[in-house]
Amino acid sequence: MAWACSATSNEGLVQKLLQTSIITKERVVQAMTAVDRKDFCPRGPYEDSPKGIGYGVTISAPSVLYMKSQFRVRQLMV
Which residues cross the membrane (predicted)? Predict the structure, then answer.
């Protein structure tokens, strides 16, 4: 499931994560489609793995970010 969702574009990444049911909420799909990962990590942005973004900081793997986002959407809707 995770780590097997890499793609060559932001749209492809979102589609793979949808296909594997890592993301299921339309609001999460809209948000992740609107913000391109390449704006935050220039090397391998669509690989489903954590990436360094400078200053010793990393951005989590997309599958982890999307799962967290879905949980947060659920909390906000209650």
Answer: none
In single-letter form, the type of residue at position 61 comes to: A
- For residue range 5-14, list pLDDT tens digits in order: 889 999 999 9
Return the residue matching tokens 């391998």.
Answer: 44
∠43-5-22 over CA atoms, to 5°? 125
Per DSSP, helices labelled H in the chain are 10-19, 26-34, 62-77
Interatomic CA distance for residues 11 and 3, integer angstroms: 17
Active site residue 63: no
pTM for this entry: 0.76
